[in-house]
Amino acid sequence: MAIGLRIVDLRKIYNSAPPFAAAGVGVPRSSATSEKAAKTAKPEIVALDGISLQVEGGEIFGLLGPNGAGKSTTVGVLTTRVRPSGGQAWIGDYDVWKDQAVVKRLIGVVPQRPNLDFSLTASEILVFHGAYFGLSTKDRNQRAGELLEKFKLTDRANQMVRGFSGGMMQRLSIARAMMHDPQVLFLDEPSAGLDPQTRILLWEIIREYNQAGKTILLTTHYMEEADALCNRLAIIDHGKVIAVDTPAGLKGSIPGGYLLRLRFAKHTPGLLLGLQSLSGVREVRSQDTTGADVYADRGGSLIPEIASLAATTGAELVDVHISEPSLENLFLHHTGRSLRD
Amino acid sequence: MNWKTFGALLARDAHVAKRNAMQLFLQTFLQPLMFVFIFGRVMVRSGYMPASYKALLLPGIMAISMVFTGIWAVAMPLIAEFQWTKEIEDRLLAPIGTIWLAIEKVLFGMIQAIVAGLIVLPLGWLLLRPIDISIHAAAMFAGMTILVAAFSACGGLALGCTVNQQHIGLMFSMVLTPMIFFGCTYYPWSALNAFPILQKVVLINPLVYASEGLRASLVPGFPHLSMSAVFAGMAFFDLLLLVLGLRQFDKKAIG
């Protein structure tokens, strides 16, 4: 029976820079009006602002958001590495905070930044990890051998990991996380810095592990990765959940689907009204005097009409970017920011 | 409590220590043995020091070696792993309460400190022969060795979870060096009779109790602090540093 996870109203406020257990950055709290903040005069950073999520057993669930959105802190809390300021988290039926040792047995963690034991060889890293989890000598040697083979590291088995490339370290980190056959696997930005070939290998391995009935939670700010791997996604920004659905469901929720990002030398209210009235246009947003985001049912075929509208209102069109329905657009639609900001 | 995991954590540290055995050996013994040679042999034979100084010096050298070894063994990896390489995260995710990892570090540091003490003693004895030194009260000597080892390892834990990596040099010059020079290692506490204020002040230095206690159990003929004061002092500092160290460890380990 696959094990799911659940978090309810999770909050995390840092009074100083987040320590390494939470690699994310968080969002500085703009109002320092609370009494406590005034008293301590320390800058408070709200990393999680009341996040609630439920991940079903056997799902591949993605947390999508820009750097500092709170993804790593969420993973940190779920993996016993970050103490929440409020709220609760469970892995299966176990409270992450109260039943730490049990929870640690159920989870495997691939951190954002490789934290391999530099004093050991690749093979020793896996074997000792197995020993921490109580595997017998025979079992851990056998499993280490299998994983090294699977991750194409057999010829490096007896080398110290200090000299490994980033991709090799990442592969070994994932092998280590799988060593004790955890029910829930956490991968924090698993493909950051990987070459395309290794990324495809990684995706295959994640899917295969999932097919063995395991639950997977991954964080990413790569839209393609979320789209390709995840059964469901939560979009997170500023420590809050903005939307949760399947990738297709989320993309379907963008008005029109197409996004045309227009830039003018200077636009006028008349132009914006004109854009709104073009056929197929669902929504027009403008945050300054030069840019306008147009959500529409069609893409390229709108350009001639937009250009002539601009010419009649005296606004010079200087740049056009058309994107097809994507999670990137969805994120932009919900937050006004690009995922890569 | 999960003893299998605890044992595996100890085995990992032992494996790493075995791999670095030669480096550890040189790092631990070279300096104290040179000190023993110059002050105990060269200075004594040339007549600048009385022959009896040899027996006074050796217990102090044993205390220094143990304390340095324990602090080094626990503090240095913690400083690097918490602040720089983050390697410790792997072990923080082992299925055991976080605090047990700190206790494992202390236990392993103690073992290393005891081994260092039990190696430097016969080596020093070989270098200084003939020397009037022997284990007079075995139980007292064993008790002192364990308490000194605990002090070094708990001190290592407290320092390792407090000192920033850019302040390692400062840790040596501001904490360890004064501790050694004012730790009654090269002279007995009674030698400070002529400096009554200093004699009181140095009592906040745990190394004073370590040196005096080892001296009392190896060369009881020299004047020394009363053993009850020594045991009380050592137990107090061991406990204090352990509590401080565990608190700091928990703070560092969990965000």
**Count of separate structural domains of chain B:** 1
Q: Identify low-pLDDT runs of chain B.
A: none
Compressed to H and E, one letter per element, the order of chain A equals: EEHEEHEEHEHHHEHEHEEHEHEEHEH
N-end to C-end Cα span of chain A: 40 Å
Reported by name, the CATH topology of the largest domain in chain A is Rossmann fold
Strand content of chain A: 25-35%
**Biggest chain contact:** A-B, 37 and 31 residues
Main structural class of chain A: alpha/beta
DSSP E strands of chain B, number: 0
Name of the CATH architecture of the largest domain in chain A: 3-Layer(aba) Sandwich
Count the beta strands of chain A.
Answer: 15
Q: H/E series of chain B, N to C?
A: HHHHHHHHHH
Radius of gyration of chain B over alpha carbons? Answer: 19 Å
The average pLDDT score of chain A comes to: 85
Largest sheet of chain A: 6 strands, mixed
- Strand percentage of chain B lies at under 5%
CATH class of the largest domain in chain A: Alpha Beta
Please give a structural write-up:
The complex is a heterodimer of chains A (341) and B (255). Chain A has helices at residues 35-40, 71-78, 100-106, 122-132, 137-150, 166-178, 196-211, 223-229, 247-252, 269-277, 303-313, 327-335; strands spanning 5-14, 27-28, 45-55, 60-64, 86-91, 94-95, 107-110, 184-188, 215-220, 232-237, 240-245, 258-264, 281-285, 291-296, 317-323. With 341 residues, chain A is of the alpha/beta class. In chain A, the strands form 3 sheets. A 6-stranded mixed β-sheet of chain A has the order 7-8-9-4-10-11, with helices on both faces. In chain A, helix 4 (122-132) crosses helix 5 (137-150). Chain A is elongated and about 80 Å long. Mean pLDDT of chain A is 85; it is low at 29-34. Chain B has helices spanning 3-19, 21-45, 53-85, 89-92, 98-128, 138-160, 168-181, 196-201, 206-218, 227-253. With 255 residues, chain B is mainly α. Chain B contains 10 helices and no strands. Chain B has one domain (3-253). Chain B is globular, with a radius of gyration of 19 Å. The mean pLDDT of chain B is 92. Helix content of chain B is 76%, strand content 0%.
